[in-house]
Amino acid sequence: MKRMIAGLLILALTLISAGAPAETPVRMMYDSVFNLLFDTNNVTLTGHAEFSLDGERFKTADARYVQDGVNSLWDWKLKSPRRDGSERESGYTVIANGEKVYVMEVFYPGMYKTGSTREYDTILRRSVQLNLLRDLLRILSDQSDSLLGQEAVETRSDETGLTVRIQAGKDVPEIVNTALNMAVQFAARRYFETDYDQLSERNMISMDNFITVTQAILCSTSYMSLNQADITLKRDAGGRFESAEGKVSVELNTEEDGIRLLDISFRLDASDFGGSSVEPFDPADYGVRLWDGTAEMNAPDTRAAEACRG
């Protein structure tokens, strides 16, 4: 869930920041998104996204995320089409009670793993690198409408809240694509164990050499550029983020396969501010028993990083 939130909202933030001077409706929306991600400790998020490469769907994601102080719950369901027309189902449910984490995977029904992590009470954790990215986006926001143009952003404000719609295409300034790549590379390192500082264009291999499309995109793309985006964000009358939905098309500049086209359609809703609840994990509630390999939960997963090295 956090992978989808980070990827989609960071992309939306990148586009918002490119045309959002301080104190405008767009900057108000920008601030509400940051408040949701880094300063909200009780909320429920539900999301849906479909991912396609060159017009062919390769992943559908449905997710629910609940933050309740230092307790959280992710319910992450994935579907991928098989060659025979059927759907391959995967995903997991993760419950965190403070430092203790419990994981149930679709591939291992009836089992759960457990481990430990640092205690967090917000959707995303702050870091020095993330603060730097935040500052970059805010610097871009001071450039006003000069980056995207006035016609690219529509805003509507009434008694129910604020709506912002952003439409952009290939003609965005290069600084927007640079910010997009920095944001995507940050998310890839944090959530997919892919460190672009360890990758070289000369060593990138064809996308056909990877097991999953997601891994192929991360490991074979040297630069991304916006092709088209149409994103609508809403916040309620109280200033809280309410929803984001839209479609984004990104050109993937690869070293071995030329330019590929990644299309994403998504919707994300926030609700139950202050009323969300996550109960302490009880195996009986889920009908599961402890898996013998629990100790592996405490080791970092570097498989994606290793795979990128070919």
Biggest β-sheet: count, sense, barrel?
12 strands, mixed
Order of neighbouring strands in the sheet with most strands: 7-8-9-10-11-1-2-3-4-5-6-12
Query: Helix coverage percent of residues?
Result: 25-40%
Shape: globular
Intertermini distance = 28 Å
* Structure summary, number of beta strands: 12
Radius of gyration: 20 Å
Would you tell me the structural class of the helices and strands? alpha+beta
Strand content: 35-45%
Fold blueprint:
Blueprint (H helix, E strand, L loop, with lengths): L1 H16 L7 H15 L2 E12 L2 E13 L2 E11 L5 E11 L2 E6 L5 E6 L11 H14 L11 E6 L2 E9 L4 H19 L20 H8 E16 L4 E14 L4 E13 L11 H4 L2 E2 L12 H6 L2
Parallel strand pairs: 6-12
Antiparallel strand pairs: 1-2, 1-11, 2-3, 3-4, 4-5, 5-6, 7-8, 8-9, 9-10, 10-11
Helix pairs in contact: 1-2, 1-3, 1-4, 3-4
Task: Give a description of the structure.
The protein is α+β, with helices and mostly antiparallel strands and 310 residues long. 26% of the residues lie in helices and 38% in strands. Strand 5 and strand 6 form a beta hairpin. Mean pLDDT is 85; it is low at 294-305.
